[in-house]
User: Fold this.
Amino acid sequence: MADENGGDGLFGSAEADYGWTQGSRAAEASSDVEILRRVWRNEKAAPEILPYEILLIQRIREQILLMEDTLSTFAGTSSDELTLSMYRMDIDRTTFLLRAYLRVRLQKIEQFAMHILRTEELWERLSQQEQDYVQRYIDILQKHMEQSVLSKLPFGYQSMLRQAMSSEEDDMIPEPALDTFVFCKSKGSIPSLQLDEKGDETVDLLSDDLYILRYRPIRRLLETDRIELV
Assistant:
């Protein structure tokens, strides 16, 4: 039932003024949160770091700020604690997802920092802030290792990259296990997906079906949003 000022929502005319019931804005925020939830699941399940979703994260941060500003305004004018608490829960859930997504990426960055720095494709997947963090993290790690460990080892074993100076490869750099198995769901039918390099092993993926597959054969499908990890 509309109030005397023409408002028909929980906050009356004030709600209309601040846009709590603007359908397009609410739908956009809800859609972005769902996308963020899917992006977070993909990042958490993938063994390697995935491309940073810069536009999505920018929108999510703007929406959180807008929601907090609007809630702060209503908190001083409304006595409906139940409704205010529901909006606070929405803000908390969105903030939790955002932090969880960034935390997973930070864990991968610290685990594979040197590998990411040396791999152009992975380096370009990071945000500018993440790239700066990688540089600082490696610098600090190198100084710490040299002072506490490497300087005390015999000559020929004082490298962070190789087990010994005689090694032909940098075999001390951790890399993601791309052949690990992951749970995934196809967003559409994908016929004859090649599971090995020779093409002797293939599988037909059906829309919305769940599969357990090695990550390496499906990583490009994940990049093109044809599958999602669960």
Summary: The CA atoms of residues 170 and 185 lie 36 Å apart. The first helix runs from residue 12 to 18. The longest strand covers residues 181-186.
